[in-house]
Amino acid sequence: MVQQVMARGEASFSDLSAIAVTVGPGSFTGLRVGLAFAKGLGLALGIPCCGVGVLAALAEAPEALPRRVAVIDAGRGSLFIQLFETAAPASPPERLTIAESRIRIMQRFGGAAFSIIGPGEAGLADLAGAEAMDRRFPDPVQIARLAPLDRPGAQPLYLRPPDAIPKVTTTEVATASAAQAEVLAALHAEAFLETWSAQDFRTLLESPGVAAYLAFREGVAAGFVLTRAILDEAEILTLAVQPEARRRGLARQLIETAMTAAASRGARRLWLEVAEDNLPALALYRRAGFRETGRRRAYYVGVAGVRDALVMARDLGA
Ligand SMILES: CC(C)(COP(=O)(O)OP(=O)(O)OC[C@H]1O[C@@H](n2cnc3c(N)ncnc32)[C@H](O)[C@@H]1OP(=O)(O)O)[C@@H](O)C(=O)NCCC(=O)NCCS
Fold it and tell me: Which of 20, 47, 237, 241 is deepest in the core (most CB within 10 A)?
């Protein structure tokens, strides 16, 4: 296809000075194939490959109103959506249900006239102020125009956890990446009253020394541990197992994985904090060889009241 386009444009590959490519959101396979091809071509030609958000590119429609909603069907009743106001993003790219998308638009535009651009506008076109524009793809000219030539690089923008997870019949622990931030946030929300967002997990996982490990039961993510290792010290930032998967040794396996991984990164001691009244966690940590080393007064302040934190630590074997 690319060769055909080049032939129609009467251009040769050596005429190219940069490649612009959309980075999603979109289907995993489409994104991977597209990005791998664009990057490979850039590498072979020795020219930069620059990523452009597909929703930003869709929103670049000269005939649209100043307030714009770019939207793509994300399957299973959800949409990839981003709002723009006079050419600037008015929200991040998000994956929302149709109901959440309607709220987001009304919160931001409050009934003022706006254009809905994209193939996924169904379910939004009856909103006050909406003018639907059925546009199936971003305009390649706009993609080229938006390409950040001063900032080469094209990282895929995944807004959905992967559907394909390893099928195992027993418990298996695997390293989690920032792409699984939504899975981690969902597991965390089932275990704690104070929730952490997917963005919180993404930010943590992109910071130095932080790693997460997911435990799968029958191929379904059922628990995780988040750790940070700096020089010869490591800490458990959080640990959670789904209520229906508890007392089957998942947390123990996660802690063992965290200890081995921290030791292999050079850590000699593993630390953690635990609420003084969290008896299951205290029992778990004591059994895993952690000992109390201190107490932080009134450390946890939240919907569950004020509680001290116990500081616990254990040495990691040589
Ligand atoms: C604490 C938590 C992670 C334990 O997960 P889990 O997978 O059920 O733990 P395991 O099955 O690996 O348990 C290992 C050992 O911990 C102890 N333990 C775990 N849950 C316990 C409970 N409810 N009561 C007493 N001891 C418990 C036991 O010694 C257990 O061994 P055993 O089952 O052979 O008796 C889980 O209850 C949870 O997610 N809680 C909410 C979130 C949380 O408090 N996280 C820790 C924050 S610091």
Answer: 241
Provide the annotated active-site residues.
273, 285
Backbone angles phi and psi of 298, in degrees to 5: 50, 45
Nearest CA to ligand 1 atom 16: 284
**What pTM did the predictor assign?**
0.56
Ligand 1 geometric centre to CA of 287 (Å): 10
For the chain, the straight-line distance linking the first and the last C-alpha, in angstroms and rounded, comes to 56
Domain with CATH 3.30.420.40 in the chain: 2-54+139-146
Is 246 touching ligand 1 by the criterion CB < 6 Å? yes
Host H or E run for residue 26: none
> Around Cβ 163, how many Cβ atoms within 10 Å?
7
pLDDT digits (tens, 9 = 90+) for 179-193: 899 999 999 998 888
The span from the CA of 238 to the CA of 196, in Å, is: 11
Ligand 1 atom with minimal separation from the 242 CA: 39
Regions of the chain short of the pLDDT cut 50:
167-169
Q: Write out pLDDT tens, residues 2-37.
A: 999 999 999 999 999 999 999 999 888 889 999 999
Superfamily of chain region 2-54+139-146: ATPase, nucleotide binding domain (3.30.420.40)
| Ligand 1 neighbour 281 (Cβ under 6 A) | yes
| Residue 238: partners with Cβ closer than 8 Å, 6 or more residues away | 188, 192, 196, 225, 226
Task: Among 188, 241, 311, name the best residue to mutate to test ligand 1's pocket (greatest count of ligand atoms within 8 A of Cβ).
Answer: 241
CB distance 286 to ligand 1 below 6 Å:
no
